């Protein structure tokens, strides 16, 4: 399905998750939430037809954007002329090395109305580069934002909640209805701010082990941790972590997973 094109741009491509924001009030709220400051290094993921790009550029003067759709590069560059200095990286965001992009300069402030079909891979990719990032403002499916921010005991709490909250402060900001986009998505949306925690703050000794424990725990979320983590954590690890082996993953707070993963680390 595609929507009528904006002059100078082609039709929206469903396969690329193209739902273009057009409602000025929401565009302004996102730009205000980012509130770029002099010296910030701003990067936008998926600029599309420039709904956020042009206001950000006008406000900040310089912006790097990462857009996979080659057909959008020329019209976007034309639309940006005269508004500031726009660098366009025509690549799959999942292949972009954000640490190299920051290049030892100021940490990046990343913005994006993300393609919903690959939002989780993008979030995990950004976690891998969190040390190079100051903050992120993302529009996502509302249900994904709820999962990101959920606490233990809630149905929405899962692997995404634990991994993101271990790496970042997760702050849901506001909701956005389907009518604010062209074409409208079938779901409600929400904007969230992510602020990476200082390296080491969560106390994770081995990130790969932490990730494996969380993945296994929620891979079979109805099982007790004793069963879900068989082979990864034995009775000594549960005792060292002060977690009852009969607990289910959805009841364990982020710090509990950190203790379990650390206890499972070889000395
Ligand atoms: N920022 C625009 C707006 O708010 O109107 C467009 C948002 S649209 C939801 C998502 C954008 O991400 C599209 O421009 C799409 O082409 C782009 N995109 C999709 N997959 C991508 C990928 N793997 N890497 C980079 N950009 C991608």
Structural commentary:
This protein is of the alpha/beta class. The chain folds into 2 domains: 183 residues, Vaccinia Virus protein VP39 (Rossmann fold, 3-Layer(aba) Sandwich), CATH 3.40.50; 58 residues, rRNA adenine dimethylase, C-terminal domain (Helicase, Ruva Protein, domain 3), CATH 1.10.8. The chain is 36% helix and 19% strand. The protein has 11 helices and 9 strands. Strands 4-3-2-5-6-9-7 form a 7-stranded mixed beta sheet, with helices on both faces. Helix 8 packs across helix 11. The structure holds S-adenosylmethionine. The site of S-adenosylmethionine has 22 residues, from strand 1.
Structural shape = elongated
List the uncertain runs: none
Q: Quick check: average pLDDT?
A: 94
Q: Which strand order do you get reading across the main beta sheet? A: 4-3-2-5-6-9-7
Please trace the helix and strand order, writing H or E for each element: EHEHEHEHEHEHHEEEHHHH
- What small molecules are bound in this structure? S-adenosylmethionine
The CATH class assignment of the largest domain is Alpha Beta
Instruction: Determine the fraction of residues in helical runs and give it as a percent range.
Output: 25-40%
Estimate nothing, just give the exact number of structural domains. 2
Please tally the β strands and state the result: 9
CATH architecture of the largest domain: 3-Layer(aba) Sandwich
In CATH terms, the superfamily of the largest domain is Vaccinia Virus protein VP39
Number of helices: 11
The profile of the biggest β sheet is: 7 strands, mixed
């Amino acid at each position: 399905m595609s929507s009528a094109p904006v002059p100078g741009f082609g039709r929206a491509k469903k396969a690329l998750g193209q739902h273009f924001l057009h409602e000025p009030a929401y565009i302004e709220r996102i730009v205000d939430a980012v509130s770029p400051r002099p010296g910030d290094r701003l990067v936008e993921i998926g600029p599309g037809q420039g709904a956020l790009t042009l206001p950000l550029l006008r406000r900040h003067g310089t912006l790097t954007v990462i857009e996979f759709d080659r057909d959008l590069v020329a019209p976007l560059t034309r639309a940006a002329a005269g508004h500031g200095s726009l660098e366009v990286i025509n690549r799959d965001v999942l292949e972009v090395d954000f640490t190299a992009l920051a290049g030892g300069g100021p940490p990046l402030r990343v913005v994006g109305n993300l393609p919903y079909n690959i939002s989780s891979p993008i979030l995990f990719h950004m976690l891998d580069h969190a040390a190079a990032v100051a903050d992120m403002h993302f529009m996502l499916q509302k249900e994904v934002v709820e999962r990101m921010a959920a606490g233990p005991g809630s149905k929405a709490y899962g692997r995404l909640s634990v991994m993101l909250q271990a790496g970042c402060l997760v702050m849901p900001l506001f909701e956005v209805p389907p009518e604010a986009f062209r074409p409208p998505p079938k779901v409600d949306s929400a904007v969230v701010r992510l602020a990476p925690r200082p390296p080491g703050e969560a106390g994770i000794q081995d990130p790969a082990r932490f990730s494996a424990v969380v993945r296994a725990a929620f891979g079979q979320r109805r099982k007790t941790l004793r069963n879900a983590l068989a082979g990864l954590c034995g009775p000594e690890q549960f005792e060292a972590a002060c977690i009852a082996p009969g607990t289910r993953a959805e009841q364990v707070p982020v710090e509990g997973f950190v203790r379990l993963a650390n206890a499972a680390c070889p000395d």
